[in-house]
Amino acid sequence: MLRETAHQVIRDAIVRGDLAPGSVVRDADLAEELGLSRAPVRDALARLADEGLIETKPQSHTRVTPLLSRDVRDAAAVVRAMHELAARTAVPRLSDADCDAMAAANDRFAAAARAGDVDGALRADDELHDVLVRACGNRAVAATIDRYTPLIRRLERIRFGEGAGHQSVELHERLIEACRARDAATATAVTTEIWRELEDLAD
After folding, report:
1. Is the dihedral of CA 62, 66, 69, 72 positive or negative?
2. Which of 34, 44, 56, 63 is least crowded, fewest Cβ atoms below 10 Å from its Cβ?
3. Is 21 exposed, middle or buried (0-12, 13-18, 19+ CB in 10 A)?
4. CA dist list (Å): 30 to 3, 16, 67
């Protein structure tokens, strides 16, 4: 659908920083740039406002939300709770192939981090954690993570851009080890450690 396309493209531009925090956005300009009519762009902006990435002041402006520590911290706490639930639920259900997929994703993550490829690192990070999200089988968990992750992704990009990948590789390795042992308690504890880093970074 055109609305979904517009939403995805604009959301990605905000997360990447192509549309910087605080920058004013105009539906007519975005529609022309995307080759779409204004209706799906307006719908996308309304949805992004509901998701906290766009703010609108009537008769004044529509702009990308500033990168506020409170908003990032709140979103990170929700995302952490969902990943903890996914880990607790998924680990007993994992197959050896699932664990191998997590290890392969961490290898890609490490390579991207070494190369300074922020997009590649974030993509591999998502692929690793998505194994647990899919295995837990809870659609509400997946939907909540998808809803709130973009709010923290802008900060994650800064974090990875500053070379924080090495510690994440080690945390991933500990998570994978716990998953291979089907140790849900340890996997959940490591998951907490991984996502609390973002909450701390927001401070």
Report:
1. positive
2. 56
3. middle
4. 13, 16, 21
CB 41 within 8 A of CB 30: yes
Reported as a single tens digit per residue, the pLDDT across 143-201 is 999 999 998 888 877 766 665 667 889 999 999 999 999 999 999 999 999 998 777 77
What separation in angstroms does the CA of 10 have from each of 13, 61, 183?
Answer: 5, 17, 40
pTM value is: 0.85
Q: Which domains does the chain have, with CATH numbers?
A: 1-64 (1.10.10.10), 70-202 (1.20.120.530)
Contacts 24+ apart (CB under 8 A), 54-63: 54/14, 54/25, 61/24, 62/24, 62/25, 62/26, 62/27, 63/22, 63/23, 63/24, 63/25
User: How many CB atoms are closer than 10 A to CB 176?
Assistant: 21
How far apart CA 170 and CA 110 sit, in angstroms, is 10
- Structure tokens, 58: 């009537």
CB 132 within 8 A of CB 91: yes
Residue whose token pair is 């493209």:
9
Asked if residue 178 lies in contact with residue 190, where contact means CB atoms within 8 angstroms, the answer is yes
CB 124 within 8 A of CB 160: no
